[in-house]
Amino acid sequence: MKTTSSNNQYAAANNVLICIVSMLLGYNIYQAVYHPEKSELLLCIAIVIFTSAMIRKYETKKMKNE
Predict the structure, then answer these.
(1) Cα–Cα distance, 47 to 27 (Å, whole number)
(2) Is the confidence at residue 35, as pLDDT, over 60?
(3) Nearest to residue 41, comparing CAs of 22, 21, 25, 17?
(4) d(CA 21, CA 25)
């Protein structure tokens, strides 16, 4: 039985990008709650949308066993 392995060169970059954007989003939500004048939620939402589009474009696709 074959096991599928991902050879997608963007998989590691996607994981790093998700991690960074998650940290930024969490920090900005914290700022919005406790220090609203320092919050940049609109910029963070734009980054989340951009990240989502990039991950959908370069997502890892599993190979089908034939």
Answers:
(1) 13
(2) yes
(3) 25
(4) 6
